[in-house]
DNA sequence: TCTGGGGTCCTAGGACCC
DNA sequence: TCTGGGGTCCTAGGACCC
């Protein structure tokens, strides 16, 4: 039985964090504003000036920028220092995630009043399955896309009324095209795409506009002479499979032709929870041992608190380290019974840490708990015991630190 | 003065069991 | 002595997304 045709919307809030900031600081409208650097001191209007991006010194990246700042070449993910070189006079505001989460809940509730089949895709975007709503128009002989367009308008108006914020919506037969569509007429766009529009409107776009083709795949395709989605659509599936493997190659081919049958998933359980922090300055595993140990303990307490607050426990405890050369390593350890206990997580994390040779300064430390189950569920049958992994021997050229106790232990 | 923090999913090898 | 598979779990790394 062929699946009935669907109507999917992708809704994306316009420059979300920056727009939230403008909501409470309307005098900044029209100016280049950058949100980022959560450690930046609270932004205040002082001595006739807002904090200047050009005065910032430190690590941190741009989280969002207003369209005025984007016009200067600033985009999210860019280092704040690089952004400061492009627009030193831009206003820099620290991120206020509590406020963003509050407005995120508000816009999603406003959508749910009109269309409840929502897939959460993070703080500022969602997919909505409008198939049922669209079908309700058909028996009346309405043009289904006309009805859908009107419904999308209603959704946008409801979001605006509830939050004061604007969003862009893509309407299409699947998630892939809806997502591309919501980005085509930003900000404030409402874009309808059908399968018939693919050659005209999708094929001229760069391959990177396909959600799932990132920097690496994009560069590899480019090196193979494939720049646009149309180029990709013209590639033989076998040739793509040869270069990218069966799964990814076939997926690329289908995507380039606008095909995607992923459902809108309205509920999902978390897989892991983590906390990590990049230090203000790189820390030395030996000289800064105490500070590292204290930070490590704090991260474990934060993950534990997150788990407890949300009612989850986990069996796989992992750590993540990033060295000053940006090399990243992870280690994890699966324990018998799931936990949300900070001291237990700390101890397991300490064992993981012993399997890393610490021969460079560190810039980041993280703690993760995975293989989650509900805290109120029957405790799962303990897994058969495995021998504890033997810490891998330090390489011959490892420095002395390897043989010393690493971080202060509570034992 | 490069490069955040919180996630998901995939791959691949080895252990271990049947 | 050598030769098999399949399935699941665990671990490490990497790509990607918001």
Automatic annotation (TrEMBL):
<comment type="similarity">
    <text>Belongs to the DNA polymerase type-Y family.</text>
</comment>
<dbReference type="InterPro" id="IPR043128">
    <property type="entry name" value="Rev_trsase/Diguanyl_cyclase"/>
</dbReference>
<keyword id="KW-0548">Nucleotidyltransferase</keyword>
<dbReference type="InterPro" id="IPR043502">
    <property type="entry name" value="DNA/RNA_pol_sf"/>
</dbReference>
<keyword id="KW-0234">DNA repair</keyword>
<keyword id="KW-0515">Mutator protein</keyword>
<keyword id="KW-0235">DNA replication</keyword>
<dbReference type="InterPro" id="IPR050116">
    <property type="entry name" value="DNA_polymerase-Y"/>
</dbReference>
<feature type="region of interest" description="Disordered">
    <location>
        <begin position="373"/>
        <end position="411"/>
    </location>
</feature>
<feature type="compositionally biased region" description="Pro residues">
    <location>
        <begin position="387"/>
        <end position="396"/>
    </location>
</feature>
<dbReference type="InterPro" id="IPR022880">
    <property type="entry name" value="DNApol_IV"/>
</dbReference>
<dbReference type="Pfam" id="PF00817">
    <property type="entry name" value="IMS"/>
</dbReference>
<dbReference type="Pfam" id="PF11799">
    <property type="entry name" value="IMS_C"/>
</dbReference>
<dbReference type="GO" id="GO:0003887">
    <property type="term" value="F:DNA-directed DNA polymerase activity"/>
</dbReference>
<keyword id="KW-0227">DNA damage</keyword>
<keyword id="KW-0808">Transferase</keyword>
<feature type="binding site">
    <location>
        <position position="124"/>
    </location>
    <ligand>
        <name>Mg(2+)</name>
    </ligand>
</feature>
<keyword id="KW-0460">Magnesium</keyword>
<dbReference type="InterPro" id="IPR036775">
    <property type="entry name" value="DNA_pol_Y-fam_lit_finger_sf"/>
</dbReference>
<keyword id="KW-0479">Metal-binding</keyword>
<dbReference type="InterPro" id="IPR017961">
    <property type="entry name" value="DNA_pol_Y-fam_little_finger"/>
</dbReference>
<comment type="function">
    <text>Poorly processive, error-prone DNA polymerase involved in untargeted mutagenesis. Copies undamaged DNA at stalled replication forks, which arise in vivo from mismatched or misaligned primer ends. These misaligned primers can be extended by PolIV. Exhibits no 3'-5' exonuclease (proofreading) activity. May be involved in translesional synthesis, in conjunction with the beta clamp from PolIII.</text>
</comment>
<comment type="subunit">
    <text>Monomer.</text>
</comment>
<keyword id="KW-0238">DNA-binding</keyword>
<keyword id="KW-0239">DNA-directed DNA polymerase</keyword>
<dbReference type="InterPro" id="IPR024728">
    <property type="entry name" value="PolY_HhH_motif"/>
</dbReference>
<feature type="site" description="Substrate discrimination">
    <location>
        <position position="17"/>
    </location>
</feature>
<feature type="binding site">
    <location>
        <position position="12"/>
    </location>
    <ligand>
        <name>Mg(2+)</name>
    </ligand>
</feature>
<feature type="domain" description="UmuC">
    <location>
        <begin position="8"/>
        <end position="214"/>
    </location>
</feature>
<dbReference type="InterPro" id="IPR001126">
    <property type="entry name" value="UmuC"/>
</dbReference>
<protein>
    <recommendedName>
        <fullName>DNA polymerase IV</fullName>
        <ecNumber>2.7.7.7</ecNumber>
    </recommendedName>
</protein>
<keyword id="KW-0963">Cytoplasm</keyword>
<dbReference type="Pfam" id="PF11798">
    <property type="entry name" value="IMS_HHH"/>
</dbReference>
<feature type="active site">
    <location>
        <position position="125"/>
    </location>
</feature>
